[in-house]
Amino acid sequence: MELRKIGPGYLAGAALCITAAILAVRAARFPWIHNLQLSALTLAIVAGMAVGNTLPAGSLEWLHPGLRFSQQILLRLGIVLYGVRLTVRDLVNLGPRALVLDLAVIGTVLIVGYWIGTRVLRLDRDTALLVSAGSGICGAAAVLATDRVIESESHKVSVAVATVVVFGTAAMFLYPVLYPHTGFTDRQFGIYTGATVHEVAQVLATGRAVSQAASDTAVITKMLRVLLLAPVLLIISRIRRTANPGSTGRISQPWFVFWFGAVIVAQSFVKLPSGVRSNLIDLDTLLLSSAMFALGVATRWYQMKAAGTRPLLLALIIFSGLVSGGWIMTRLLV
User: Hey, how many other C-beta atoms are within 10 angstroms of the C-beta on 1?
Assistant: First the structure.
């Protein structure tokens, strides 16, 4: 980064994002917000969209260098640091069948969701992929990480994140109602929940509504899904490179994915003190929330309106498939 590029707008834009992220993290701890399972990431993007659509666009122009820094650099750092939450032992303890289930869910959602989005609903490729990645892997974090590989427009990312919030929240209320009718034990239901619900916080809330055993199993299964984010991003990057061999544009190599994996491996060999690990997770939430706020500021309502109802319809189709198809897969594999 050249020093001449660091000006007042650069510093002010980055400081605005970090300040907003701190406020979002604190707000997410309020009891009534915590009970609604609204994460700091969700609050940050909503706040960013409010700022971006309330203030005149010209008044924010000078902040764009700092906003882009948050969307790119802070986001990559946040994704790398997300690996602190995981260890290879999480995968081993869960067993091979849960791994197969997670792989089946992610592969089916990405392939079928992308096909329905582009061929049936006539969505653009980026929107179809972002909605599918958010639904199939790990919610908003997967949307943001996928965007760093495909470099889509800000409003498409916001639309994808919105679908994660809507249907992940719906799952929190639907799954406990379905539990008595699934025929699952608490452990099986936990695996089903972890393999099909969008966000980690939503998985935790859904499992706890049934039992502690269901919650514990659900979170581990979900963490395994998060662990699979890295190889999925590498595959997406490879496919885009192969599909556009003559492109003059550069498809960015997602080096942050390798660092993400390295952090996970390190977690398996070096046990961090609980206080240090907790602080790193808090820092990671702050970094990702900063990126979400910057993304929200760059999003305009008219852009989301132009996207129409088709992304929401795609997310609904995927959600229905996760509920029903996930149940069938769990019955067969677990």
Answer: 8
Contact (Cβ atoms closer than 8 angstroms) between residue 157 and residue 126? no
* Both structure tokens of 222: 């979900």
Give the pTM: 0.75
More confident of the two residues 89 and 113? 113
d(CA 155, CA 265): 34
pLDDT in tens, 234-265: 898 888 877 666 543 344 455 776 788 888 88
Where are the chain's structural domains? Answer: 3-333
Res 213 pLDDT > 70: yes
* Cα of 95 vs its chain's centroid, Å: 24
Instruction: Kindly report the backbone phi and psi dihedral angles of residue 51, in degrees, each rounded to the nearest multiple of 5, phi listed first.
Output: -65, -45
Q: Are 19 and 67 in contact (CB under 8 A)?
A: no
Average pLDDT over the chain, rounded to whole? 85
Q: How many residues does the chain have?
A: 334
For residue 62, give the DSSP letter. Answer: G
CA gap 144, 151 in Å, rounded = 10
In tens, the pLDDT along 232-242 reads 988 988 888 77
Which single residue is written with the structure tokens 């677990």? 334
How large is the average pLDDT for residues 176-196? 94
Going by C-alpha positions, the residue among 115, 122, 127 that lies closest to residue 163 is 127
**Residues 6 or more apart from 272 whose CB is under 8 A from it?**
84, 280
Q: Which residues contact 119 (CB under 8 A, 6 or more apart)?
A: none
Question: How far is it, in rounded angstroms, from Cα 305 to Cα 311?
Answer: 11
CA separation for the pair 75, 13 (Å, rounded): 15
Amino acid (one-letter) located at 1: M
- Element of type H or E holding 302: helix 301-307
pLDDT score for 5: 56
Task: Give the closest residue to 17 by CA, choosing from 317, 315, 293, 237.
Answer: 293
Residue 205, CB half-sphere, CA atoms under 13 Å: how many? 19
Please report the pLDDT score of residue 294 as a whole number. 87
